[in-house]
Write a structure and sequence with these properties.
By secondary structure, this protein is α/β, with parallel strands linked by helices. The protein contains 9 helices and 8 strands. An 8-stranded mixed beta sheet has the order 3-2-1-4-5-6-7-8, with helices on both faces. Helix 3 packs parallel to helix 4 (100-115) and helix 4 crosses helix 9 (237-251). The longest helix is centred in the middle third of the chain and has 22 residues, at 149-170.
């Protein structure tokens, strides 16, 4: 039995992954952005251990969640699933002044990773759109560019893959991998999505708990439990280190080992 934290598990793929983990006999800690969403998650996943609360639009709440997670002991796996989508309008995250999409999708998983005791496995949900992500580290926070929601989302999904590969490189005691679930008909994906919804969450679970040799490597990128090439920008070590350094400055928390 593994103990797994799943962020963004009150609906969508995070909820589906959490349900499958519980069905398979694992101990699961859920996450919702508000007490009401956390309660919804617990109601939707009978048998889950508990739910943590943090709005990822607040770095202070991410810090508090990291403290609460650490108080529970080291996790076997953390699935970084929480995100906002490509249809978001430009707005600033509450209290911190960063772009909402960048803060929720990049800074929050960065900070949670940096502050939590490294688990045995890290799983980051990226997207095929990471290949369209802007590799330039200038203007990560959209202060000079004209807003484009799809581009902002694509950038952050590139960042998630870069964080996964950087953790794999810097933390040899942790298996760290990224995946793309496909374009599926969740609230984020929308009703016109054409991907396999039943398969979309299974790679998260497989990377988090499976003893399959293909799931027990590190620094991999997967689609439907099969390796898939990540973009060159995601694999670029200098870009990975640059992103970690930028996130460290923005959050005031350097990445351990970087």
């Amino acid at each position: 039995m593994a103990r797994v934290l799943v962020t963004g598990s009150s609906d969508g793929l995070g909820l589906a992954a959490a349900r499958l983990l519980v069905e398979d006999g694992h101990a699961v800690v859920l996450h919702g952005r508000s007490p009401a969403r956390a309660a919804d998650a617990l109601a939707a996943v009978p048998g889950a251990e508990r739910a943590l609360v943090a709005d990822f639009a607040s770095l202070a709440q991410v810090r508090r969640m990291a403290d609460e997670a650490n108080a529970l002991g080291r996790f076997d796996a953390v699935i970084h699933n929480a995100a906002v989508g490509y249809r978001e309008k430009h707005r600033l995250a509450t209290g911190d002044g960063f772009s909402h999409v960048f803060q929720v999708n990049t800074l929050a998983p960065y900070l949670l990773t940096a502050l939590m005791t490294p688990p045995k496995r890290l799983v980051y949900v990226s997207s095929e759109l990471h290949r369209r992500g802007r590799a330039d580290l200038d203007d990560l926070d959209w202060r000079r560019r004209s807003w484009n929601g799809t581009q902002a989302y694509s950038d952050t999904k590139l960042h998630d893959a870069q964080i996964a590969f950087a953790a794999a490189r810097l933390w040899p005691g942790t298996l760290s991998n990224a995946l793309e679930p496909g374009w599926v008909a969740t609230k984020m994906g929308g009703p016109r999505a054409t991907g396999d919804l039943d398969a979309a969450h299974r790679t998260q679970v497989w990377l988090a708990v499976s003893d399959d040799p293909a799931a027990t490597g590190t620094g991999g990128y997967f689609f439907h439990r099969r390796p898939k090439p990540a973009s060159g920008a995601a694999r670029d070590v200098a870009l990975q280190d640059g992103l970690l350094a930028a996130c460290g400055r923005m959050t005031g928390t350097p990445f351990p080992g970087a």
